[in-house]
Amino acid sequence: MKSADETWHALAAFNQLLPAAQLTRVWEQGYYLAARPATGDGLVRLYQVETFFVEIHFYTSADFEILRAFHDPAYLQPYLDQIDLTALRH
Question: Are 71 and 52 in contact, with CB atoms under 8 Å apart?
């Protein structure tokens, strides 16, 4: 498991990439986790890349932008209702 310092450096390095390079990294190394309706049109999809998360707003399948990359779990709140924990009950 990476330390908090390593995670911060990985996130900072990702944020310094040009948008096209960020998208390539998400497509090649990211794992799709969840989606939520966007404010306005489209859908926001959540991906995990290494030890941080990336949200991408899809206006259409061909028109999208990276909204943010983050490590703070507070930004995961909009996705938590999609996780079914009933199977974990004893």
Answer: yes
Domain residue ranges of the chain, discontinuous segments joined by +: 4-88
Give the angle 78-84-88 at the CA atoms, nearest 5°.
Answer: 130
Structure tokens at 76: 């995961």
pTM of the entire predicted model: 0.83
In Å, what is the CA distance from 49 to each residue of 31, 32, 78, 79, 89? 7, 9, 18, 17, 29
Tell me how far apart the alpha carbons of residues 90 and 19 are, in angstroms, rounded to a whole number.
45
Of residues 61 and 23, which shows the higher confidence score? 23
The residue that leads in pLDDT, 88 or 38, is 38
